[in-house]
Specification:
Strand content: under 5%
Helix content: 55-70%
Order of helices and strands: HHHHHH
Number of strands: 0
Distance between the termini: 17 Å
Structural class: mainly alpha
Number of helices: 6
Largest sheet: none
Length: about 110
């Protein structure tokens, strides 16, 4: 895991970027590079109504059987990253904000938290 070898300041900055990208996958160069064609082909996942944080990525996940191999691979890689820090899974983070504040106060994010 490369993240564990980073200096704390560098890791913090990298996480800030990843959290920003997780809110709108169009900002995630790797994921968009692999899935842009899939988004354009999918009538369900290309609409303007997908404005909530993480909505496009969640839509693609729900239609995974229809995706190209490259997009599926990129989504799988991002899912592994998302599992390490709840802030990277925007639909979950948005839905559970109150619970996270209540039960996780004082705990650091990361390492599956």
């Amino acid at each position: 895991n490369v993240s564990s070898k980073l200096q704390p300041r560098c890791f913090y900055q990298m996480m800030e970027v990843r959290i920003f990208e997780s809110k709108d996958m169009r900002l995630d160069v790797v994921l968009m590079g692999a899935c842009k064609g899939d988004l354009l082909r999918s009538s369900a996942c290309s609409g303007g109504e997908l404005q909530t944080p993480g909505a496009r990525k969640a839509c693609l996940k729900s239609h995974v059987s229809e995706l190209t191999l490259a997009c599926r691979g990129a989504l799988f890689a991002r899912a592994q990253e998302d599992a390490r820090d709840v802030r990277l899974n925007q639909p979950l983070f948005q839905a559970c904000t109150r619970e996270i504040k209540r039960f996780c106060e004082g705990h650091k994010f990361g390492q599956a938290r």
